[in-house]
Design a protein that fits this description.
By secondary structure, this protein is an alpha/beta fold. The chain contains eight helices and 16 strands.
Length: about 350
């Protein structure tokens, strides 16, 4: 079982890679869940996942970056099945309605009249949640700028010749040589996320299941140079791959790579995240001169990240409050058999 984030809190706001959850050509059935907070979307996905696993199917769990205990989606690759939360901030509509995509609106199980009694409280709490996330994104934008500065200064102190030599050796080891004409099948997501519980990582869900793990150690952004170049060669070779991005640079900094056919996982290791599984190590720290002058900037980066996480934590507390305007008016008993019906329809 693999776990990861399909979207993340970033300097660009909420950044979604939802389109890569299960591409259309791999989809037999997609259920898009609609409904308000506290209506049971995540609980329903967890129950369906448990039923499918009990029947022997691999089910990947895709977590919510604003509440890692909740799910944004589940995927059973061998069945071509996924179920996902299609509400804001990751609104999803059917691409092939009826053929593969179905909307399941949990609003059919609520008492709308009861919820309407709290409409002003719902509006106000939702507004406060949006304000918390706006503050978090401001801090993350500042953190991203500081990280960019640290990266530029660190690269000046790096021995690019030695790093390139190590990169070429690894590419040769992975047989990433000649180009191929066939297109790559690339999926994108996040393995780490800024959440109410801090900087959460699901690196080990890949590291403990891969046949081979390669860990690139670097306390600076030289690792990103390394993995981005590897990604270019993987694409040129026409390989299938999962690219996992850094939440501070969600569209251009690849931190981890998984090659499903080869069962190879390439991960970066630093103060913020590392795998605990046994791994072949490529240590880039030896090729970087210490930069004591950057310690203060690193402290600033950590403060900004801490402030952002605090704002996301406040948003989570408000979201929990928002759920209480819905939960009492949900008929959860009527939903008892729903997971079994869904699994029966899938199989």
């Amino acid at each position: 079982m693999h776990e990861y984030f399909p979207g993340a809190n970033t300097p660009q706001g909420f950044f979604s890679y939802y389109q890569y959850i299960l591409p259309p050509e791999e989809t037999n059935q997609k259920i898009i869940l609609k409904g308000g907070p506290g209506t049971g979307k995540s609980s329903l996905m967890k129950k369906v996942a448990a039923l499918l696993r009990a029947k022997g199917y691999k089910v990947n769990l895709l977590h919510c970056s604003s509440d890692p205990d909740s799910l944004d989606a589940i995927v059973a690759p061998s069945l071509g099945f996924c179920m996902l939360d299609g509400t804001a901030p990751h609104v999803v509509d059917p691409s092939t309605p009826g053929a593969t995509d179905t909307i399941l609106h949990l609003g059919q199980y609520w008492d709308a009249a009861g919820i309407r009694k709290h409409k002003e409280q719902i509006r106000q709490t939702s507004k406060e949640i949006s304000a918390c996330f706006a503050n978090a994104y401001d801090y993350l934008r500042a953190a991203g700028s500081v990280q960019n500065y640290i990266r530029k200064e660190t690269l000046k102190a790096a021995d690019e010749t030695q790093i390139t030599k190590a990169l070429n050796a690894l590419m040769a080891d992975l047989a990433l040589g000649a180009d191929f004409q066939k297109p790559s099948k690339i999926k994108k997501a996040f393995l780490t996320g800024f959440t109410p519980k801090g900087n959460i990582s699901y690196i080990d869900s890949f590291a403990t299941t891969a046949d081979r793990v390669i860990q690139i150690k670097s306390e600076a952004d030289t690792a990103a140079f390394f993995t981005n170049r590897l990604a270019e060669r993987i694409i040129a070779n026409g390989k299938a791959a999962n690219f996992f991005y850094c939440p501070l640079q969600p569209d251009n900094k690849i931190e981890h790579i998984y090659l499903p056919k080869e069962s190879i996982f390439i991960t970066t290791s630093n103060t913020y995240h590392a795998c605990t599984a046994n791994a072949q190590c490529v240590d880039l720290n030896a090729f970087i001169k210490p930069c004591p002058a950057l310690r203060a900037d690193t402290d600033i980066l950590n403060i900004l990240l801490s402030r952002a996480i605090s704002c996301i934590k406040n948003a989570k507390a408000l979201h929990d409050k928002l759920e209480q305007f819905y939960i009492p008016y949900m008929d959860f008993d009527a939903m008892t058999d729903l997971p079994h019906k869904i699994v029966s329809n899938i199989l």
